[in-house]
Amino acid sequence: MTLDTTNISKNLQPSPHTNHDDANILSRVGHIVRALHESMAGLGLSQILEQVARDIPDTRDRLSYIATMTEQAAERVLNATDVAIPIQDELTETTKFLTKQWHATLEHAALKSEYNLVAEQTIKHLQRLDQGSNETKAILIEIMMAQDFQDLTGQVIKKITQLMNDMESQLMQVLVDFSEIKTTGTIHTNYNQTLVDHSLGESNTNINQTEVDGLLESLGF
C-alpha cells in the first residue's frame, strides 16, 4: 500500500482568501497533519500483512520491520554463498586431480578392458562434475551480486521513514506553536499530561501515534 497524498495535496493548495493570520495557518496545517497522520496509519494494512500490522501497529515500525527483514534475508544469502563457494572450489580441484590420475592409469596397457571401461565412465563423470561445479559457482556468485538491491531498498526505506517522521514532528510543532497550548499550557481534561510536557518543553522528543491523535483531536482536527 502506498502513501495516500490526495488529502495532503488538497490541503497544500493556496487558500481562496489571501488571509495569512494565525487562525488560517493553524487550520491549514492542522488538516495537513491529519491527512498525513491518517495516510501513515494506513500503511501496511493489507490482508497479507494483517498479522504483522497487528503486531507492529506503528507505521515507522512497519517500515523498519521491512528493512530489517530484507537485511536479514540478504545476510542469510550472503553467508550461504560464502560457505558454498569454497566447497565448490574444493570439488573442482579434487575432480581435476582425479581426472589426471585416471588418465595416467589408462596409459598402462596391462589393465583389463573392463577396468578401462569403468575408468572411462568415471572420467566422464568427473568431467561433468567439474563443469557442474563451475556452473554452480557462477550461480552462487550471481545470487551474491543480486543482493545489492538490499542496500538500495534499505536506504530508500530509511529515508522515507525519516522524512515522514521529520515532517510529522515539524508540523506538530507548528500546531503547538500557534495553538492555545503554547500560552495556557493546558489541553482538554481528558488529554494525557505527558503530551503537554512534550508539546511545551521537549520539541526534540518524538511524539508517538497515540499522542498525535490526542493532540489533533484536542485542537479540533
Automatic annotation (TrEMBL):
The lineage of its organism: Bacteria, Pseudomonadati, Pseudomonadota, Betaproteobacteria, Nitrosomonadales. It is an enzyme of class 3 (hydrolase). GO terms for biological process: archaeal or bacterial-type flagellum-dependent cell motility; chemotaxis; regulation of chemotaxis. Residues 1-23 are annotated as: Disordered. Belongs to the CheZ family. Homodimer. GO terms for molecular function: phosphoprotein phosphatase activity. Residues 1-17 have a biased composition (Polar residues). One of its GO terms (cellular component) is bacterial-type flagellum. Pfam families: CheZ (PF04344). Keywords: Chemotaxis, Cytoplasm, Flagellar rotation, Hydrolase, Protein phosphatase. This is Protein phosphatase CheZ. Plays an important role in bacterial chemotaxis signal transduction pathway by accelerating the dephosphorylation of phosphorylated CheY (CheY-P). Transmembrane segments: none annotated. It is found in: Cytoplasm. Its EC number is 3.1.3.-. The record marks 155 as: Enhances dephosphorylation of CheY-P. Its main location: cytoplasm. It comes from the Bacteria. InterPro entries: Chemotax_Pase_CheZ (IPR007439), CheZ_family_phosphatases (IPR050992).
